[in-house]
Design a protein that fits this description.
The protein contains 6 helices and 6 strands, in the order E-E-H-E-E-E-E-H-H-H-H-H. The chain is of the alpha+beta class. The chain folds into 2 domains: 85 residues, Phosphoribosyl-AMP cyclohydrolase (Ubiquitin-like (UB roll), Roll); 89 residues, MazG-like (Helix Hairpins).
């Protein structure tokens, strides 16, 4: 039988000697691992009650709600625990970036990577980064410049990049097409963020069309 928030008992979990349990946080849309933090029973119960991520700070010895000051909150969509019941996987909808260094994920320091496949999460990461630029402008950023100029400037760039994609295709230049399509996708995402259009809305529409 599937457990619900109402029926779940925290006693089913094994907390460590400090009465904490590690929580791996994953973006439910992109499947990217965002961060790892700790919860005590109170933080986990608060998370279950509000469906907003709340953790326990080991340095400050207090609860903290993710994004309370930065605005980069996490809406909890799913929770599960491992086979030993001593670790939790929490799937969230991330608003903004997850890491305090302004990176999308806390796991951004590579040691090695033998997998040469492409990062399928790049569009989600780019969307969240652009959204962060809008909410917390960075001086000298081209993205900030576009938001400052406003809708007309963004639309002009979308039009220009669309035309350049067409020209590249007519020139039968794969390299040129790659560059121009990348530019167009970037400016389309800027437009989405500017108009408060969530990525999920577009993906849901595409999913419905596929059906």
């Amino acid at each position: 039988m599937q457990k619900t928030i109402e029926t779940f008992d925290l006693k089913q979990l094994t907390f460590n000697q400090d009465n904490l349990i590690p929580v791996i946080v994953q973006d439910i849309r992109s499947k990217a691992v965002l961060m790892m933090a700790y919860m005590n029973k109170e933080a986990l119960q608060k998370t279950l009650d509000t469906k907003e991520a709340t953790y326990f700070s080991r340095s400050r010895q207090t609860l903290w709600k993710k994004g309370q000051t930065s605005g980069n909150t996490q809406s909890v969509e799913a929770l599960s625990y491992d086979c030993d019941a001593d670790a939790v996987l929490m799937q969230v909808k991330q608003r903004g970036v997850a890491c305090h260094t302004n990176k999308m994920s806390c796991f951004h320091n590579p040691i090695f990577n033998e997998d040469k496949t492409l990062d399928s999460n790049i569009l989600f990461s780019l969307y969240n980064l652009i959204k962060e630029r809008k909410n917390r402008p960075k001086a000298g950023s081209y993205t900030e410049y576009l938001f400052q100029e406003g809708l007309d400037k963004i639309l002009k760039k979308v039009g220009e990049e669309s035309s350049e994609v067409i020209i590249a295709a007519k020139n039968q230049s794969p390299e040129e097409m790659t560059n121009e399509i990348s530019d167009l996708l970037y400016h389309l995402i800027v437009l989405m963020v500017n108009e408060n259009l969530e990525f999920d809305e577009v993906l849901n529409e595409l999913n419905e069309r596929r059906k």
